[in-house]
Amino acid sequence: MARSNRRVVPESRQMLDQMKYEIAAEFGLNVGYGQNALAGADTEFGSELGAVSDHSYGQYKGWGHLTSRENGSVGGEITKRLIRQAEKQLL
C-alpha cells in the first residue's frame, strides 16, 4: 500500500504550521521565521524561549540545521497534541 502525505483537510495547513512553530519555540529550538514560515504566527513566548536554546545556530532560518531528533520531537509532540484534542472531543 502506497503511503501518502496528502492532508485529508487541506485547510488545516495553517493551523499545523502555527502549532509546529509554537512547539519549536517551547522546546527552545531556533528555527527563525523565513519566507516559508507562517507570517505572523502567534507563538506567544517564541522569542523568549527560542533565545534560551543551548545550541549556537546563529541566524539560521528554517529547519535544515536541526538534528533529526529535534525535528522528530516537534513532529511527535504535534501528534500527541492532536490525539489529545481528538480524545477530548470524543468524551
Automatic annotation (TrEMBL):
GO BP term, example: DNA topological change
Any Pfam family hit: SASP
Xref: InterPro entries: SASP_alpha/beta-type, SASP_alpha/beta-type_CS, SASP_DNA-binding, SASP_sf_alpha/beta
Gene3D superfamilies membership: Small, acid-soluble spore protein, alpha/beta type-like
Keyword Zinc assigned: no
Phosphoprotein in keyword set: no
Single annotated GO MF: double-stranded DNA binding
Keyword terms, alphabetized: DNA-binding
Top-rank taxon: Bacteria
Annotated family: Belongs to the alpha/beta-type SASP family.
Functional note: SASP are bound to spore DNA. They are double-stranded DNA-binding proteins that cause DNA to change to an a-like conformation. They protect the DNA backbone from chemical and enzymatic cleavage and are thus involved in dormant spore's high resistance to UV light.
Name listed for the protein in its UniProt record: Alpha/beta-type small acid-soluble spore protein
Originating species: Paenibacillus xylanilyticus
Lineage: Bacteria, Bacillati, Bacillota, Bacilli, Bacillales
